[in-house]
Here is the input.
Amino acid sequence: MPAAEDDPILLQDAAREAGEIALRYWRGDFRTWDKGDGAGPVTEADLAVNAHLERRLRGARPDYGWLSEESPDDPARLEAAHCFIIDPIDGTRAFIDGQTGFSHSLAIARGHRIVAAVVHLPAQDLTYTAHAGGPARLNGNAITASTHGFQGADVLAGKPSLDPVHWRGVTPPLKRSFRPSLAWRLCLAAEGRFDAVLSVREAWEWDIAAGSLIALRAGCLATDLSGQPLQFNTARRLSDGLIVAPPAIHDGMLAAMTPRPTRAVAIPAAPNC
Here is the structure.
């Protein structure tokens, strides 16, 4: 039986294969439709990548659970010791528009923590990787987070994040930037090209699972808006917002933000593993 220590290589190989499939559709003619209920667009490329990843990954690890943006949720994943958490194409709108800022986000959770992660941007030939206990890497080279302080930090965030309602008193002097893929944003903070990532909206696990581990292994903290560590492979599948940044920026941001009520969520006990 394949060993869990081989999981990072499995994810990297699968991510490269996903990129090859996506690039066959990118900037071409493909079907697009809206998923409804505010879930955004999906394309036949999303589904083709998802189908390949499910065959590839579940074929290699049949006892692992499966959580993907483009697959029906299977509650059996909550009982699995390990679970794949997948976004076949993160940044679908960018993909549809022919932009290069879309990614494939692949992660493995053990219990409620991510232990292996890959974020691959095939149109830019960028591959971010990390595993528990090892460094974060970009194309094989170790990366580290920013050493910038809180004041004037360059934060990847949507426009609502700097609305004064989310801050004590006035919005602090932060610079806001944006990139289309949330998984990529987390990796950009990991390599220090930006100082932090902030989302005041709920975040789906598949958008943040891989990138959060990469950021953690690069020296960031990764929490929800109340400062609680992120949990994965949960029944709810959502995080109450997101703050990912080096400790000084993270703590400054958390202290400056309007306090958030702590959500009482019953997290099932982690499986024996």
Remarks:
- DSSP finds six helices and 16 strands in the chain.
